[in-house]
Known about the structure:
The chain is mainly α and 416 residues long.
Amino acid sequence: MQPLLRSRYYAVVITQSLCNSLHSMVDSIEQMARTASGKRRWMFLWRVVYNGRIACQPTEPSVTIPSRADHPAMPAEALFDADLDSWRAQPERAFDGWLSQHGFRHGTAVVYRSMWGKLLRWSGEQGLAPLTWSAAQIGEFLDAQKLHKSHRYRYARLIERVFQHLSLARQDLVNPASIAVRTKLADGENDPTAFLLPGERDLLVARVLAPAAEDALAARQAPGQPSRISPTQWKRARDVALVAVLLGAGLKVAEIRALRLDAIDGLDDRDDHGVPALRMVRADNGRAYTATLFGFAHAPLRHWLALRAAAGTLGDLVFPALASGRPMHAASVYRRVEMLLDEAGVLAGRSERASPQTLRNTCGAMHFDAGVPPAAVAQMLGMRDLESGWRLHAAYQAWQARAGLPMAHRAEISPA
């Protein structure tokens, strides 16, 4: 055997051996992942399982490696065109065929397979035959999983798509998921409106926003030329100012992503005694309004605007993703908010979710605590109508009752 061919032969043998070992390992991991598929840490292992399988697909026609889609009990063509009886007899295998037929991306297929498996397990626990569910039973399944509203809807749509596929061959088939969607069974209830506790917002101001203001003051008083601005410094100043404006003015994520420099009043004040405010316009109806900034947000915003200019940041977005001026992605805003809330120690003892919407709600609460009428708060937050201010006020009172706070509580923070 020639040296080149011999080397290639050994390489193929070694690779095949490694892949076989990998399959033995990921089969064990997959078995563990199945028993805890509802936990996020096992979703990572689930991805490892299928990424491992894909990595070891053979490059030579003569090499065969079994995959999850290989089901000897069902012919290959049946996987792609299973009828209702086949779906009910072998729902997992038929679902795999449906996934293959529609060409979903790998990550999406993994998530859908996990969702379908959870539905089948619940169905078996309830003694229900697969794909015999009614709309009410689908609603019971969604309730039992305690899913977030968006996840409930995604589940319902997945079930609906499966029944739509089956209805192509059986036109009289009733789609229970469509009925569940139309009758709002898939909607669930909205999560209670959440706010930051007075102590939590004090932590955020004291541990994140105030130190940033002190650093900005020290930088202005330092002699000589300012040092080169690093990307880390740039992002830190941006993130702190972003959180300060979200809490201090109650902006939505879409609004802060699109906020432009010319929307800031008080930008030219050099004595730090001006009161910055944001001139906003609602995207849906063009109505203009002014969002005032609480005092704790002034210094972080001023510091960021000065650093932004010194770094030569392009464009006119107040909070770009990079110095090139590209807009921030919404998911990045959520991540930055969560990171700073965690840094401040806010998330450590919280049971409710904290997000940019929580900061917006808290901004309204601080106005209420300062004695601002609900109708005026609705105007300052750019709400759709004045009644929205009253609804937020009622939600705040309900939240205070749940949190055990006195209704007469007044925060020390007030608009400047």
